[in-house]
Amino acid sequence: MFFLYDLERTITLHPYYFGPHMREYLINKLLTDVEGTCTGRYYIICVLDAYNISMGKILPGSGLAEFTISYRAVVWRPFKGETVDGVVTAVSKLGFFANVGPLPVFVSTHLIPADVKFDPTSNPPQFSDNEGQVIEKGAHVRLKLVGTRSDVGKMSAIGSIKEDYLGFVIRPESTTRQLLTNHIDVCKWNNRILFVIRFVIPSHACSSITCCNTLPPSVSPPSSIISSHISQGS
């Protein structure tokens, strides 16, 4: 689950960076140090803004300056019972591993439906129900987290697909690409791009709607543009 957290970070800065661009250096170092890291309880996905930077404190004996930065960040904290999508990274007879973003998840055979069995003769290794559901390396799966484990700087989880609507899912980008290919045409009129959406009217011809955000409200494309994209249905 995603949250918006107010966090603090202490950063040390070399005297070389003291000057009018010191704030910029501090922000860049903050982004480099914290974005994409794991605290053991959650992942810091993105820093939105740094709303307070303390006065620098010179560290005795080194010349470095220490700053405390208060910042706001989007974090992802996985919870037990959360349903998530992941990509399979490895498959064995004991189960399979999947990455849910930065979180590694293991799904054992005890948490896989009985009709989805491991096929030892397949290459690459896979679980299959012989009805089109194939779980292999690179497959997209939907699973439920049944437990999480926190370590220093990392997390892991145990998942299950032994419930309704869990398991293999069609790759989202493939579905979107197919939708765009089958139902949207792109054409030009007066050097502007028009998107023509095709749809089927029951018991009649296939018709279309023309959408274009770049056209002024008072300007409409000529009917020839639309009529040229109307195809007869069966």
TrEMBL record:
Subcellular location: Nucleus
Assigned keywords, A-Z: DNA-directed RNA polymerase, Nucleus, Transcription
Cited function: DNA-dependent RNA polymerase which catalyzes the transcription of DNA into RNA using the four ribonucleoside triphosphates as substrates.
Alphabetized CDD domains for the sequence: RNAP_II_Rpb7_N, S1_RNAPII_Rpb7
UniProt name for this protein: DNA-directed RNA polymerase subunit
GO cellular component annotations of the record: P-body; RNA polymerase II, core complex
GO biological process, one term: transcription initiation at RNA polymerase II promoter
Residues in S1 motif domain copies: 78-155
Gene it is expressed from: RPB7
Record keyword Protease present: no
Species: Orbilia javanica
Boundaries of every RNA polymerase Rpb7-like N-terminal domain copy: 8-63
Entry similarity comment: Belongs to the eukaryotic RPB7/RPC8 RNA polymerase subunit family.
Molecular function GO labels: single-stranded DNA binding; single-stranded RNA binding; translation initiation factor binding
